[in-house]
């Protein structure tokens, strides 16, 4: 409602301004048309140079007045454009092959104007001034493909956002992997005054695939050449960045450099800081032609409108075809072709100061660019909650949006063709990283993990994973980073993120503290067929055990496990503190069972199960410790899943220090009260959704 009122006030102000300016202009001109109390004609026919009243001073005043008239008329036209935007102009049509647009503008500052004004062009409601106005949108293009490049883009974007003051419009030329990762990231990031458009890189491959390229970037390293065709036709200028760039200042300072372009200058580039194009790095070193040291294309300013008029597409293609007759392939991808074009047409380039692209690689002159680091340039649901509610913090967690980075490391897996494949699903925080290698040794199948980390912890995890031969040897483990926000551990959100990105027909819903028995992956795939999970609603239960020993000789068979149970080395899970959680599994029957057997749901039952991928999600209201799995098993029972215990499967919980959330649960009375309140509300929701059948949950809770 406030947003609507604010919009109406802006509309009224713009309307009054539009009506007042002509009147003010007329008064200004009328007052200015008197000299010594007498009217002075502005007509050139009435004021001849030979008139005694005509002087050089009056001529200057009249010229100044005419300039002011033109300025007022220009302001009037700008206000008309703003007024039309405030009335709700339909989105402009954007030509190109991009598929999706994501706008993350929130109600901050001039956000209402920004929503209307951020279009695929550089038109701004600010006048064209030598400096970048606050409301002017800065356009940035990035080519990004694959998992590693997507991770680099996040660092680049964060560095830009840290310093920026202007609205930003990112144009991401991305493959399907990068688009999936970055679309989710930006949707969950919700940064104000940021818009993202995606362009399908795979559709552009035919434009550059004819160029042989030795550079590690492959075909994607050539796609900056076709930006004049790829980006919207009405986009006039854009900053193009490599994914490994980091900014140390406001990007608006770089955007302002466009105003320094003169004549036919259409490319802004920094001189290459290595000796590559000088051709003296080794014997018989033969680089592509370049002007002097050549130019580095890690940072490019492109005047797209002028490039199109110059027929840039034809220009670079002819140059590339000619040079390839002798060079056979490019060594530095698009950079070689840009430099060959500039060699022939040096008037095209405006040389940027080198601090705009400091190249920190071996054999460069980057130290000449700076003396100090400082020199481098490079929610409606919440409003409905009662803040006086003692459980407010619990309730708001359900609506918190967490920035999410999917596939943080390289992931590559094709599910088995027999439709029996199973993915292990789990979630963890930084203090459970040590379990990853052990799980990978016990489970050879695909894994989907959601990790709850801060930005700094994500980098620590990256170093940890890259230093692990076990983890680096597994490409079928998907790591999804959910960034920290709020005071509670969002356990069920994490589970849902990991579940959502499972690519196999079935999921083993586990926890990170459990080690599955050796061979469980293959055993579950056989059980899927045996129990016909594809055509029935079944939840296969993997019995859970625990040890109090940090060093355990892991049992290699059911017989060995039973022996350890009898000796007291192992226990049924939570036997000492929470018997109800797993008692319905009927461990006494399991000891001698040789075939799967069915068990009934009971209050507080929370087994670890294997289900189809289309099973219900976990309920997000449960955060931290308590009832997060119980509620999910209750939902499965309400949807008439059968619970089937597998006779030859088991998993063992490894000991660890108590989590922060369980400590809060045990020590904080209000925490326990709020959990009880959330349980009651969940049961009421179940009754509304499932009717009479859900009454048993209320009865069971009262009797337990």
TrEMBL record:
The chain crosses the membrane at residues 12-31. The keyword Cell wall biogenesis/degradation does not apply. The keyword Chaperone does not apply. One of its GO terms (cellular component) is Golgi membrane. Pathway: Protein modification; protein glycosylation. It is a single-pass type II membrane protein. It catalyses: 3-O-{(1->[3)-alpha-D-Xyl-(1->3)-beta-D-GlcA-(1->](n)-4)-beta-D-Xyl-(1->4)-Rib-ol-P-Rib-ol-P-3-beta-D-GalNAc-(1->3)-beta-D-GlcNAc-(1->4)-O-6-P-alpha-D-Man}-L-Thr-[protein] + UDP-alpha-D-glucuronate = 3-O-{beta-D-GlcA-(1->[3)-alpha-D-Xyl-(1->3)-beta-D-GlcA-(1->](n)-4)-beta-D-Xyl-(1->4)-Rib-ol-P-Rib-ol-P-3-beta-D-GalNAc-(1->3)-beta-D-GlcNAc-(1->4)-O-6-P-alpha-D-Man}-L-Thr-[protein] + UDP + H(+); 3-O-{beta-D-GlcA-(1->[3)-alpha-D-Xyl-(1->3)-beta-D-GlcA-(1->](n)-4)-beta-D-Xyl-(1->4)-Rib-ol-P-Rib-ol-P-3-beta-D-GalNAc-(1->3)-beta-D-GlcNAc-(1->4)-O-6-P-alpha-D-Man}-L-Thr-[protein] + UDP-alpha-D-xylose = 3-O-{(1->[3)-alpha-D-Xyl-(1->3)-beta-D-GlcA-(1->](n+1)-4)-beta-D-Xyl-(1->4)-Rib-ol-P-Rib-ol-P-3-beta-D-GalNAc-(1->3)-beta-D-GlcNAc-(1->4)-O-6-P-alpha-D-Man}-L-Thr-[protein] + UDP + H(+); 3-O-[beta-D-GlcA-(1->3)-beta-D-Xyl-(1->4)-Rib-ol-P-Rib-ol-P-3-beta-D-GalNAc-(1->3)-beta-D-GlcNAc-(1->4)-(O-6-P-alpha-D-Man)]-Thr-[protein] + UDP-alpha-D-xylose = 3-O-[alpha-D-Xyl-(1->3)-beta-D-GlcA-(1->4)-beta-D-Xyl-(1->4)-Rib-ol-P-Rib-ol-P-3-beta-D-GalNAc-(1->3)-beta-D-GlcNAc-(1->4)-(O-6-P-alpha-D-Man)]-Thr-[protein] + UDP + H(+). Pfam families: Glyco_transf_49 (PF13896), Glyco_transf_8 (PF01501). It is found in: Golgi apparatus membrane. Keywords: Glycoprotein, Glycosyltransferase, Golgi apparatus, Membrane, Multifunctional enzyme, Signal-anchor, Transferase, Transmembrane, Transmembrane helix. GO terms for molecular function: glucuronosyltransferase activity; xylosyltransferase activity. It comes from the Eukaryota. InterPro entries: Glyco_trans_8, Nucleotide-diphossugar_trans, Xyl/GlcA_transferase. In the N-terminal section; belongs to the glycosyltransferase 8 family. This is LARGE xylosyl- and glucuronyltransferase 1.
């Amino acid at each position: 409602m406030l947003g609507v009122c604010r919009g109406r006030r802006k509309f009224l102000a713009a309307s009054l301004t539009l009506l007042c300016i002509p009147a003010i202009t007329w008064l200004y001109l009328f007052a200015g048309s008197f000299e010594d109390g007498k009217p002075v004609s502005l007509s050139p026919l009435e004021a001849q140079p030979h008139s005694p009243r005509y002087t050089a001073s009056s001529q200057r005043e009249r010229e100044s007045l005419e300039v002011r008239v033109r300025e007022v008329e220009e302001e009037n036209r700008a206000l008309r454009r703003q007024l039309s935007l405030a009335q709700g102009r339909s989105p402009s049509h954007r030509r190109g092959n991009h598929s999706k647009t994501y706008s993350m503008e929130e109600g901050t500052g001039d956000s209402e104007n920004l929503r209307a004004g951020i279009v695929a062009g550089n038109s701004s409601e600010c006048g064209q001034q030598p400096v970048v106005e606050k409301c002017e949108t800065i356009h940035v293009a990035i080519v990004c493909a694959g998992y590693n490049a997507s991770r680099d883009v996040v660092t680049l974007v964060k560095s830009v956002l840290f310093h920026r003051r202007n609205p930003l419009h990112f144009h991401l030329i991305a493959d399907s992997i990068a688009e999936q990762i970055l679309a989710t990231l930006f949707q969950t990031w919700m940064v104000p005054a940021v818009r993202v458009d995606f362009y399908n890189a795979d559709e552009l491959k035919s434009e550059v695939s004819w160029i042989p390229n030795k550079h590690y970037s492959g075909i994607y390293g050539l796609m900056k050449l076709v930006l004049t065709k790829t980006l919207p036709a009405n986009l006039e200028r854009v900053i193009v960045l490599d994914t490994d760039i980091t900014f140390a200042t406001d990007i608006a300072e770089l955007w302002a450099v466009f105003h320094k372009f003169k004549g036919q200058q259409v490319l802004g580039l920094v001189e290459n800081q290595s000796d590559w194009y000088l051709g003296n790095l080794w014997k018989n070193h033969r680089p592509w032609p370049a002007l002097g040291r050549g130019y580095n294309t890690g940072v490019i300013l492109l005047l797209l409108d002028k490039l199109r008029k110059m027929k840039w597409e034809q220009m670079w293609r002819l140059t590339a075809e000619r040079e390839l007759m002798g060079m056979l392939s490019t060594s530095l991808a698009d950079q070689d072709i840009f430099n060959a074009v500039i060699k022939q047409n040096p008037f095209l380039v405006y040389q940027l100061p080198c601090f705009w692209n400091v190249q920190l690689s071996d054999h460069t002159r980057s130290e000449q660019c700076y003396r100090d680091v400082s020199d481098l340039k490079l929610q409606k649901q919440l409003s409905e909650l009662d803040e006086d509610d003692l459980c407010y913090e619990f309730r708001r967690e359900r609506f918190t949006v967490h920035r999410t980075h999917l596939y943080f490391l390289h992931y590559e897996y094709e599910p088995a063709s027999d439709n029996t494949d199973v993915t292990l699903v789990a979630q963890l925080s930084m203090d459970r990283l040590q379990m990853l290698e052990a799980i990978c040794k016990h489970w050879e199948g695909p894994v989907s993990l959601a990790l709850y980390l801060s930005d700094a912890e994500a980098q620590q995890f990256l170093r940890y994973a890259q230093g692990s031969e076990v983890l680096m040897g597994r490409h079928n483990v998907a790591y999804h980073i959910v960034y920290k926000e709020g005071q509670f551990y969002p356990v069920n959100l994490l589970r849902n993120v990991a579940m959502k990105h499972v690519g196999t027909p079935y999921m083993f819903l586990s926890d990170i503290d459990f080690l599955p028995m050796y061979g469980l992956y293959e055993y579950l795939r056989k059980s899927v067929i045996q129990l016909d999970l594809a055509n029935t609603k079944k939840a296969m239960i993997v019995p859970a055990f625990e040890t109090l020993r940090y060093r355990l000789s892991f049992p290699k068979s059911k017989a060995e496990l039973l022996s350890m149970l009898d000796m007291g080395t192992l226990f049924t899970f939570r036997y000492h503190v929470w018997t109800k959680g797993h008692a319905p599994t009927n461990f006494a029957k399991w000891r001698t069972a040789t075939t799967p057997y069915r068990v009934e749901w009971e209050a507080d039952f929370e087994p670890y199960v294997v289900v189809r991928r289309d099973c219900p999600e976990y309920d997000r209201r449960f955060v931290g410790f308590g009832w997060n799995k119980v509620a999910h098993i209750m939902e499965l029972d309400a949807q008439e899943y059968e619970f089937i215990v597998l006779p030859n499967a088991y998993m063992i919980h490894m000991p660890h220090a108590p989590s922060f959330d369980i400590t809060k649960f045990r020590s904080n009375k209000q925490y326990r009260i709020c959990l009880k309140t959330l349980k009651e509300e969940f049961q009421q929701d179940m009754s509304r959704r499932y009717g009479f059948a859900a009454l048993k949950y209320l009865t069971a809770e009262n009797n337990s």
